[in-house]
Write a structure and sequence with these properties.
heterodimer; A: 673 residues; alpha+beta; 8-stranded antiparallel sheet; B: 526 residues; alpha/beta; 8-stranded mixed sheet; 19 helices; ligase activity (chain A); CPAse_ATP-bd (chain A)
Chain lengths: 673, 526
């Protein structure tokens, strides 16, 4: 029996495993890097061991440190979670050699499935359908193809190539990325199926020879090969197809004498054919949807199996209803999925009834690695949380999920929330028309969620009014009406940087704190403070009539043309987060008195996002041509190129390979030729 | 504390008539304020903006803390005179970095911001407020100096402005001058006498004599910048402490000066009255001969409408008692029936002494027609008793605030702390009037005196001429007793909307209380 278990991971998956441990009476051990010292997963564990440093290679990828940590705390088992060392056969072996229980399949099974090329050869022999594959780029004869890392997973290093010309560069980049991410630069090319769906089968096998399938999951909605919406059952899978998929999955598992939780991934072509993609020898991120409709705790089953126990069933359990999961990422879909970092000042999803374990009945489950005040850094995956809805039907689950997301408050970092809501409400999604090209074909889902122009205006007004209401707490004459004048002249003004640009809000309250006048307009930041530019209090307003029903420092209730609207205002320094049923707006107040600032030299090249400088291909004084690749910034698994905007000479170079840079940092200066 | 019970019937004809009359007066006030805000008129405002400059009120709005109150003082100065309403300068009390400051801003759209006799009085009144209440003084300077054709009325008394400025400094009340444009000749001494000076680059021009006069005097040919630009004063003469990049930057610098003063205003709260301030419009009688109960006003001004009346059964024509406004304790003296008798005068004198013993500021709500006349009262010593009250008011050491809510006639004006008795602040309601006596009485007196003179000389009295004379006099006195007329002559600190009374008094009480603490400021440069 496992008495004390170390989770060699962080964030929501560590919390997920700990939750089941608690329920089963297993003691818990967490590990943490420098920046995770205050993370929730550390606080929730019975014991925690510090892994000095931040880079994954110094912390969560250090098998030796993890085993030492387990020993130090007297742990007798290790759960790897997903990612990091979860599919590292050497680590599994080291854990077992250290006399600890490894919660996962055998190192041999991991190794066989870990090499995609070997796995494909093995499984083709037992009749699992395969896509045509080439190991060398020269062998490719039909396009498009997908370049994949043999050791990879989760989309890292994957590239679609549509013509021979770009193949070499793509292969080279994929090799680099694979080498840096997995320590193995082997890549291969595979036929790329257009409009394919991603379907995977959850399997569970015990050491007594039972291999059971627990239904399929569809994870077709992906961004850059990373899943963001996952559901079960798949709208594209009927009982007969499910049966064939499950048979193939069982064949794959049996081929490697698999024990534990695993997932066999398939590509489903529009024709109904399906092909083996890979087998993940670990618990998947999206396992909660299976837990909902099957009614099991997969982590509990993992522990039971690791202890040598039998599975509690020997055939596939019935499916109950429909479950959908979304992955909430700290990233900006509208800006090339740019990762967003910073302090998560508020993280609140309404209506959530459960976390980190199966739902007892239809409802919402939230598995999150963050809490109010968490800092989202550059070192790890930007996934903040998973939100899962389980309902009798797919449409009900989608509605429940999109509504909870839309009403949630995520303050401090940009998230993909709006995109997720738009996907869940999209007619193509609701009719089951999902495939891996969904986002490319439906660019409309990238639009912000705000319902109208007036929503932005009213949110600005609400933010300003809550600021005005906060005067009641000021040290000087707090009891007097906000902004009182015996000779009113101009409106009180606040300038915000908001979703629609720079916005000036003007307002005047009368002696009873009612709204006597207001105006909101877009302005050119250069025009701020220009004489006479102040809002004309008598000017004809082009906005709906609004009255204040109540206003405090954190909530403003307006009557807008006869409809009562509530705005929650959360102010953090100069930033106001305004949430209402009309949507969420983040407003940054511009200083009333901007300080004179030094201007960046012309030709400055700026870091597009926070990260580490990858390759530096130029030296100071070097002449470069427009479009030439100068250097790369690596962040969040992706390599962001910095190209020369014009022909010119590198007159200043501020970084070297490996430099950590903040977003907006000066990288180099290019003097145009 | 007892809570005042209102007997007001807001549907009664008296209330509705009074309200209508008050709204009419408020419309007149609005129109005067609109003219004041208009400065030198659209043409000059547009020209000023086109030069990249802000209007005085725009400068003030940028200077003061957002959402903070701003009390403009004497906004309709020069009303009813040949000078523009507002007297080419905006003065008031605003909150800068949490610190209440007296702000004086020239209006360069009005004859180049030139100083006329009313500008001078208004500026001096602002200086007095700063001195009495120990408030930092911020001058937003852009003025061509004295209005030369009027120099006879300005030049000699005008020196007091500079004297007062440096006396503030000597009293350790900080002074800041922000120069946006011209500050020539005498004007140059405003920055010259200030503790902190901020000049706007390429805009400030500070010299004793401009290039034309220098050419005349010495033959030197020189440009504005060399003679008195911001850069020169910052690097050569040392007159400029800071150079600002533009107007907004100058106001930022002024705020950062004030931040260093380390001023602390006590944080006080007072519960709102139980009754609506809006009712105040219908309480004062449209016909001033009809008395009204000031307790109805107190019920809408005092914290929680609580009022502890002192000697309620004695001298009932004057109501005295204790209450609070925005958390500040005050003693109140309010006329209930216009006339002051001996008992009222004695009660007032006693009450003022009690307030002095307790160090509690006093609020005078004036609605008086004066001390009672007639042989019975003269024999009863009304002059003696009135003198007692005037003596107490004149020598009282606690801060006084006065609001004229109706009539302020005769010696009653003195006893109820009129302007000459230097209340810290004096405001007038739009319906209020003040004069030596009522217009009819005054005309009647003149008529009687003229009739007696005619009879003494044995002439027949011309009744027709008498009617004309009385009509003319009544009309003139009526006009000259009106709130706007008095405010135009700076006999008050402004005509206020009755609904703002609690706000205005709350702000003033906070200021007068803070001013009692001499240790508010640290050491600053002299």
């Amino acid at each position: 029996m496992i008495r004390r278990l170390l989770v060699a991971n962080r964030g929501e998956i560590a919390r997920r495993v700990f939750a089941t441990c608690r329920a089963m009476g297993v003691e818990t051990v967490a590990v943490y890097s420098d920046s995770d010292a205050d993370a929730p997963h550390v606080a929730e564990a019975d014991y925690a061991v510090h892994l000095p440093g931040n880079a994954p290679t110094a912390t969560y990828l250090r098998g030796d440190l993890l085993i030492a940590a387990a020993r130090k705390c007297g742990a007798d088992a290790v759960h790897p979670g997903y990612g990091f060392l979860s599919e590292n056969a050497d680590f599994a072996r080291a854990v077992i050699d250290a006399g600890l229980t490894w919660v996962g399949p055998s190192p041999k099974a991991i190794a066989m499935m870990g090499s995609k090329l070997e796995a494909k050869a093995l499984l083709a022999d037992v009749g699992v359908p395969m896509l045509p594959t080439a190991v060398e780029p020269e062998q490719v004869d039909t396009f498009p193809v997908l370049v994949k890392a043999s050791a990879g997973g989760g989309g890292r290093g994957m590239r679609i190539v549509r013509d021979r010309e770009s193949l070499a560069e793509a292969v080279a980049a994929a090799r680099r990325e694979a080498a840096s991410a997995f320590g193995d630069g082997t890549v291969f090319c595979e036929r790329y199926v257009e409009r394919a769906r991603h379907i995977e089968v959850q399997i569970m096998a015990d050491s007594h020879g039972n291999v059971v399938t627990l239904g399929e999951r569809e994870c077709s909605i992906q961004r850059r090969h990373q899943k963001i919406v996952e559901e079960t059952p798949s709208p594209a899978v009927d009982p007969s197809l499910r049966d064939r998929l499950c048979q193939a999955a069982i064949a794959a598992a049996r081929a490697v004498s698999y024990v534990g939780a695993g997932t066999v991934e398939f590509l489903l072509a529009p024709s109904g054919e399906f092909f083996f993609l890979e087998m993940n020898t670990r618990l998947q991120v999206e396992h909660p949807v299976t837990e909902c409709v099957i009614g099991v705790d997969l982590v509990r089953l993992q522990l039971v199996v690791a202890e040598g126990g039998p599975l509690p069933f020997n055939g596939p359990p019935p499916l109950r209803g429909h479950a959908i999961e979304v992955r909430l990422y700290a990233e900006d879909p509208a800006y090339a999925w740019m990762p967003s970092t910073g302090t998560l000042h508020r993280f609140d999803v309404p209506g959530v009834t459960h976390a980190f374990g199966p739902l007892p009945g239809p409802g919402l489950r939230l598995d999150s690695g963050v809490a109010d005040g968490s800092v989202v850094g550059v070192h790890y995956d930007p996934m903040l949380a998973k939100l899962i809805a389980w309902a009798p039907t797919r449409a009900e689950a989608a509605r429940m999920l999109s509504n909870a997301l839309a009403r949630a408050r995520f303050h401090g970092v940009t998230t993909n929330r709006d995109l997720l809501v738009r996907v869940l409400r999209h007619s193509a999604f609701l009719s089951g028309g999902t495939d891996t090209g969904f986002l490319d074909r439906h660019p409309e889902v990238f639009a912000p969620l705000l319902s109208s122009v007036d929503a932005v205006r009213l949110s600005c007004l609400a933010a300003a009014l809550s600021g005005a209401a906060r005067r009641a707490k000021s040290a000087t004459l707090p009891g007097l009406p906000s902004g009182w004048r015996n000779v009113p002249s101009a409106l009180q003004t606040v300038v915000y940087e908001g979703p629609t640009g720079t916005i000036e809000v003007g307002y005047r309250l009368d002696r009873s704190n009612d709204l006597a006048a207001w105006a909101v307009r877009r302005i050119d930041p250069e025009d701020i403070g220009l004489p006479g530019a102040a809002l004309d209090p008598a000017g004809s307003p082009d906005h709906p009539p609004a009255q204040i029903l109540s206003a405090t420092g954190d909530q403003v209730v307006l009557d807008v043309a006869g409809v009562r609207l509530q705005f929650a205002v959360h102010e953090v320094g100069p930033v106001s987060f305004v949430d209402s049923s009309e949507g969420s707006v983040t407003l940054t107040e511009l200083p009333r008195y901007p300080l004179p600032v030094a201007e960046q030299p012309e030709g400055s090249l700026i870091a597009p996002l926070p990260g580490a400088v990858g390759r530096v291909l130029v030296v100071p004084g070097q002449r470069v041509a427009a479009g030439e690749l100068l250097l790369t910034v690596e962040a969040m698994k992706l390599e962001h190129p910095v190209h020369a905007p014009t022909d010119g000479v590198i007159s200043d170079l501020r970084v070297t390979a490996g430099s950590q840079v903040e977003s907006g940092a000066l990288l180099a200066v290019l003097t145009p030729a | 504390m007892p809570i005042l019970n209102s007997a007001l019937d807001p549907r009664g004809p008296a209330y509705l008539d009074n309200r209508e009359a008050m709204l009419e007066r408020l419309t007149e006030l609005d129109s005067a304020l609109r003219q004041a805000r208009g400065g030198g008129g659209e043409k000059y405002v547009t020209r000023h903006h086109a030069r990249g400059k802000l209007l005085p009120r725009e400068r003030i709005e940028l200077l003061v803390d957002r959402d903070s109150p701003f009390l403009e003082i004497c906004p309709v100065a020069a009303w009813g005179t040949d000078y523009p309403i507002g007297a080419s300068v905006v003065t008031g009390i605003g909150i800068v970095e949490g610190t209440p400051c007296v702000i004086v801003a020239n209006d360069p759209t009005v004859r180049g911001g030139a100083v006329n006799p009313f500008s001078l009085k208004k500026t001096q009144r602002a200086g007095q407020i700063a001195r009495e209440n120990r408030l930092p003084m911020i001058n937003l300077v852009e003025s061509g100096g004295a209005d030369l054709p009027q120099q006879a009325e300005i030049f000699i008394p005008g020196g007091a402005a500079f004297r007062d400025l440096t006396r503030l400094s000597a009293a350790r009340i900080p002074t800041v001058a922000v120069v946006f444009g011209n500050a020539t000749a005498g004007g140059a001494y405003v920055p010259g006498m200030s503790d902190y000076t901020i000049f706007v680059r390429d805009r400030a021009k500070v010299f004793l004599a401009g290039p034309p006069l220098v050419k005349m005097a010495t033959g030197e040919t020189v440009d504005d910048e060399t003679l008195g630009g911001a850069a020169m004063h910052a690097t050569r003469s040392g007159l400029a402490d800071y150079v600002a990049e533009d107007e907004r930057d100058a106001l930022r610098l002024a705020r950062s000066c004030v931040r260093n003063f380390g001023y602390n205003l006590a944080k006080t709260y007072g519960p709102e009255p139980k009754y609506e301030a809006d009712d105040l419009l219908g309480i004062p009688s449209a016909d001033l001969r009809v008395p009204f109960d000031p307790r109805e006003i107190l019920a809408r001004v005092l914290d929680s409408s609580e009022f502890d009346e002192f000697k309620p059964a004695y001298g009932q024509a004057l109501c005295t008692g204790w209450g609070a406004i925005h958390g500040h304790r005050i003693g109140v003296l309010a006329n209930t029936r216009g006339v002051l008798f001996s008992a009222e005068a004695q009660k007032a004198a006693q009450f003022i002494q009690l307030a002095n013993a307790a160090g509690t500021p006093l609020l005078f709500l004036q609605n008086t027609t004066g001390y009672m006349v007639g042989s019975e009262y003269e024999q009863g010593g009304i002059i003696k008793h009135g003198a007692l009250m005037i003596n107490a008011v004149a020598n009282s050491k606690v801060p006084h605030l006065t609001v004229n809510i109706g009539a302020s006639y005769g010696a009653g004006n003195y006893g109820m702390c009129g302007r000459a008795f230097e209340p810290r602040f004096l405001f007038t309601w739009p319906n209020a009037k003040s004069a030596v006596m009522g217009p009819q009485q005054l005309a009647g007196v003149l008529s009687i005196v003229a009739r007696q003179a005619a009879e003494a000389k044995g002439h027949a009295y011309d009744e027709e001429q008498d009617r004309t004379m009385r009509f003319m006099v009544e009309h003139k006195v009526e006009q000259e007793s009106a709130a706007l007329f008095l405010s135009g002559r700076l006999y008050d600190d402004g005509v206020i909307d009755p609904r703002d009374t609690r706000t205005v008094l709350g702000m003033c009480l906070a200021l007068v209380r803070a001013g009692e603490n001499d240790a508010n400021f640290g050491v600053f440069r002299l």
